[in-house]
Amino acid sequence: MISYDEINNLGSQDLLINCTPCGMHPNIDESPVKKEDMENFNIAIDTIYNPKETLFLKNAKKLGLTNINGLFMLVGQAIKAQELWNDLTIDEKIISDIYNRVLKLI
């Protein structure tokens, strides 16, 4: 783990993940990382799913980074919880199906 101030000193990296609530509704104009500090990354993942595209992800998109929000993870966690609570095994294809349905709703 490093501080935000150290991000731009890393050189080329594959992945940058935001696991903070920074950028979550209603604070949608915030990002934990400055756009210029994201330039050396290839992929940006934000665990936030509301809004669907945070400022963090918008900046990543502008820089041409692959960007992914937290909705798929949320759906996957919900499926896993159902499996644990109900002693079930749910086909992994269901995660994608539910994700795609939810994506159409938001």
UniProtKB/TrEMBL annotation:
Q: What is this protein called?
A: Shikimate dehydrogenase protein
Q: Name one GO molecular function term.
A: NADP binding
Q: Which domain of life is it from?
A: Bacteria
| The entry's keywords | Oxidoreductase
Give GO terms for biological process: chorismate biosynthetic process; shikimate metabolic process
Identify the gene encoding this protein: aro
What organism, scientifically named, is this protein from?
Answer: Haloplasma contractile SSD-17B
- Keyword Amino-acid biosynthesis (UniProt): no
EC code(s) of this entry: 1.1.1.25
Name a GO CC annotation attached to this entry: cytosol
**Which EC main class describes this enzyme?**
oxidoreductase
Which CDD domains does this UniProt record tie to the protein?
NAD_bind_Shikimate_DH (cd01065)
